[in-house]
Design goal:
Keywords: Cytoplasm. The protein is an alpha/beta fold. The protein is built from 6 helices and 5 strands, in the order βαβαβαβααβα. It has one domain: 3-Layer(aba) Sandwich (Rossmann fold), CATH 3.40.50.620. Strands 3-2-1-4-5 form a 5-stranded parallel β-sheet, with helices on both faces. The N and C termini lie far apart (about 40 Å).
Length: about 150
């Protein structure tokens, strides 16, 4: 018997890879008649050499804009049971355990590569960490080159 996933978390950062994950998450959530949680994490783990409050305001505005577009995409594609989450913290722990524990998530979907290439070189990707540490199943989605215009069109 095929596994049913009722509470699905998809992490988005605006990268092509995360938007491909969103597309896959919508499909899986609809097939399972589940609830989708779209999360964007404001990473507070780095040291910033400038005004943190100003940076957080800009990042929060960009994150809200991204989440709004992602939510609009889900509605256009027939999915209405959607939770929108913006969190501040370490993307690794927020995606692998904090949010899944709090929201009783049974599947995490995320892109293979996010926006932070420097972090990936030095300490590994968020997706690698999540695969190793997640408290539930994880699906890593490869990028579809044509997904970004479909979701993020102005």
């Amino acid at each position: 018997m095929m596994q049913e996933y009722n509470r699905i978390l998809v992490a988005v950062d605006g990268s092509d890879s995360s938007l491909s994950a969103l597309k896959k998450a919508v499909s899986i959530t609809k097939r399972n008649h589940g609830k989708l949680y779209i999360v964007h994490i404001l990473d507070d783990t780095g040291s910033l050499p400038f005004d943190v409050a100003q940076f957080e305001k800009i990042a929060r505005n960009k994150g809200n804009e991204l989440l709004e577009k992602c939510h609009h995409y889900t509605i256009e594609n027939g999915l209405d049971d959607v939770g929108i989450l913006m969190e501040v913290g370490s993307p690794r722990t927020m995606i692998s355990s904090t949010i899944p524990e709090r929201e009783n998530i049974d599947l995490i979907i995320m892109g293979a590569r996010g926006l932070n290439a420097v972090e990936r070189i030095f300490i590994g990707s968020v997706s690698d960490f999540v695969v190793r540490r997640a408290i539930c199943d994880v699906l890593i989605v490869k990028t579809e080159s044509d997904i970004m215009p479909e979701i993020l069109m102005d």
